[in-house]
């Protein structure tokens, strides 16, 4: 997520648009409050203070606090507009995930990888929870010293890219196509030693953009992709949107197609794939992957 530098133009466009949108939201919110407050008191039995309080969103002590841009968003705007280092994902790739966040946020968003785009993801999910899973402890310290509000866990992977073929073969076994809590899974691909909160939260979105996977000795994303699919299937109800980046590489391509399933894929844009995986607990007997329509004919 942080290994490549690209032109800063695309991301600046995103946050310039966000700035304009936030300004319009604040403008119309103030206009509505002003309009409501100007209503004659003779039309109601409430005092002026009660009328004003009635039109404030819950949890807002004052109108100024409700219409002021959140610090997290202002930090993101300043950071990306002034930074020469931009996220690895392109404008079009980011837009795929943003469209889903626009519908679901505030929500629970799990991101494998802490990088230059982390502040953006947390800001796009403003009011929700965004958790970053990162393999590099020193990098976590670097990023969170600058942005202490980002929530991240340090984790350790025990896989290597050079063993991906063996893991793919293992993943097709019955143990790996059984849906259960990853901690109880008998599949060696399942991540079992992460913090309890990782397993207990019902994630609405999962982004797999880590761990490192561009050389043979790197941990690779085999287990991250498999576990993302298992978390989605094992939720009590509903569905989870899962995104996998760098699908131009063999591991990300093959493991996402196999364990997140081609039948669940909604879109591919550039190097990003989007899958929507339903709960398997909510419907007994659902196959690990959807049955191919062509095979049934």
From TrEMBL:
<dbReference type="Pfam" id="PF21729">
    <property type="entry name" value="IRX15_IRX15L_GXM"/>
</dbReference>
<keyword id="KW-1133">Transmembrane helix</keyword>
<feature type="region of interest" description="Disordered">
    <location>
        <begin position="35"/>
        <end position="63"/>
    </location>
</feature>
<feature type="transmembrane region" description="Helical">
    <location>
        <begin position="9"/>
        <end position="29"/>
    </location>
</feature>
<protein>
    <recommendedName>
        <fullName>Polysaccharide biosynthesis domain-containing protein</fullName>
    </recommendedName>
</protein>
<dbReference type="InterPro" id="IPR006514">
    <property type="entry name" value="IRX15/GXM/AGM"/>
</dbReference>
<keyword id="KW-0812">Transmembrane</keyword>
<keyword id="KW-0333">Golgi apparatus</keyword>
<feature type="compositionally biased region" description="Basic and acidic residues">
    <location>
        <begin position="46"/>
        <end position="55"/>
    </location>
</feature>
<dbReference type="InterPro" id="IPR029063">
    <property type="entry name" value="SAM-dependent_MTases_sf"/>
</dbReference>
<feature type="compositionally biased region" description="Low complexity">
    <location>
        <begin position="35"/>
        <end position="45"/>
    </location>
</feature>
<keyword id="KW-0472">Membrane</keyword>
């Amino acid at each position: 997520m942080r290994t490549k530098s690209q032109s800063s133009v695309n991301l600046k466009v995103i946050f310039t648009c966000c700035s304009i949108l936030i300004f319009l939201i604040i403008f119309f919110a103030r206009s509505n409050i002003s309009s409501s407050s100007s209503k004659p008191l003779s039309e109601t039995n409430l005092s002026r203070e009660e009328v004003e309080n009635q039109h404030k969103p819950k949890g807002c002590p004052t109108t100024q606090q409700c219409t002021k841009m959140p610090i997290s968003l202002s930090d993101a705007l300043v950071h990306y507009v002034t930074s020469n280092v931009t996220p690895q994902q392109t404008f079009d790739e980011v837009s795929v995930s943003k469209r889903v966040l626009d519908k679901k946020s505030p929500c629970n968003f799990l991101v494998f990888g802490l990088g230059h785009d982390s502040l953006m993801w947390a800001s796009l999910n403003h009011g929700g929870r965004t958790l970053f899973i990162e393999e590099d402890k020193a990098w976590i310290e670097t990023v969170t010293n600058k942005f202490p509000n980002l929530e991240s866990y340090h984790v350790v992977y025990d896989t290597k890219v050079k063993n991906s073929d063996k893991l793919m073969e293992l993943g097709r076994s019955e143990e790996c196509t059984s849906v259960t809590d990853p901690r109880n899974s008998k599949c060696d691909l399942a991540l079992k030693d992460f913090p309890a909160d990782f397993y207990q939260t019902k994630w609405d979105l999962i982004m797999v953009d880590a761990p490192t996977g561009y050389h043979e000795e790197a941990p690779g994303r085999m287990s991250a992709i498999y576990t993302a699919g298992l978390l989605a299937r094992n939720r009590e109800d509903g569905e989870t949107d899962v995104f996998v980046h760098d699908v131009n590489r063999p591991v990300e391509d093959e493991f996402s197609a196999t364990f997140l399933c081609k039948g669940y894929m909604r879109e591919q844009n550039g190097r990003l794939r989007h899958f929507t995986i339903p709960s398997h607990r909510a419907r007994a007997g659902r196959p690990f992957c959807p049955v191919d329509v062509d095979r049934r004919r």
